[in-house]
Amino acid sequence: MKKFIFTLFAFLSCLWIFAQVSSPELDYAHNKLNERGEFYFKFKCNDIELVNELSSKLSIDNFKNGFVYAYANQTEFETFLTYNLSFEPVYDYYETPKALTMATTVAQMAN
Question: With pLDDT > 90 as the criterion, what percentage of the chain qualifies?
Fold first, then answer.
């Protein structure tokens, strides 16, 4: 019986670790960090003290509707992950095409 309980516990622990490690959001985050060197995401946090603490570790961009929006580089994001807060990439940020405007005069080029 002891072996069964230990085996069950070990199996459930491995399953939990696997679920934490291979989430689509985490894969997306690592992909964007490799491509761009930074990752833009949001997470739910109503604890102002925790938000203040995280603001020294991340670049907090906005706070609305109970979500904190933040930018992080690789090191900052790894630090964020140690807080075990769930997060969601801001997909719109990455899917919005960037408008390019070209200068048409010398004055615009100088500006």
Answer: 56
